[in-house]
Amino acid sequence: MKPSMSVVESNQPHLGTLPSSVRTRGGATFDPRAEVWSYKDGVTKVVIDFAATAGLSPEMQHSLKGVLIWYAENSSASHLMNMHRRFLDLARLPR
Questions:
Q1: Which end of the chain is more exposed for a tag (fewer CB within 10 A), N or C?
Q2: Where are the beta strands (DSSP E) in 24-95?
Q3: Residue 77 maps to a domain
Q4: Cβ(67)–Cβ(53) under 8 Å?
Q5: 51 falls in which pLDDT band (50, 70, 90)?
C-alpha cells in the first residue's frame, strides 16, 4: 500500500500564496498579484509586464513573482527590472 501524500505549504516567504501588498526597499508599495507591476520607487519608474511570461505554466509564473518579490524588497528598482529581463533572456522569451 502506498503511503498517503499530503501537500505542505511552504513556510518560506512568498513560496505559498502571494501577499496582497509588497513594500519595496525604497518604500513604494504594489500588489504583486497583478499582471503588471507599475510603481515609482524614488526616481525610478518600475514597469514589469508579466504578459511576456504568458507561455509559462501558472506555477512557474507564480514562482517567478515570488523570486522577484524578494528583489523588490531587498534590492534597487533597477536591479529588480534587470533580474526580470535576465529571466526573459534565460527562458528565451520575447520582451
A1: N
A2: 29-30, 36-41, 44-49
A3: yes
A4: no
A5: very high
pLDDT score of 92: 83
Domains: count for the chain: 1
Tell me the sheet residues that pair with 36: 49
pLDDT greater than 60 at residue 10 = no
CA distance 75 to 77: 7
Q: What is the DSSP string of 70-85?
A: HHHHHS-HHHHHHHHH
- What pTM does this model have? 0.79
> Looking at the domain assignment, is residue 47 inside a domain?
yes
Residue 68 placed within a domain: yes
How far apart are the C-alpha atoms of 57 and 26, rounded to whole Å? 31
Residue 1 lies in a domain: no
**Rg (Cα) of the chain, in Å, rounded?**
15
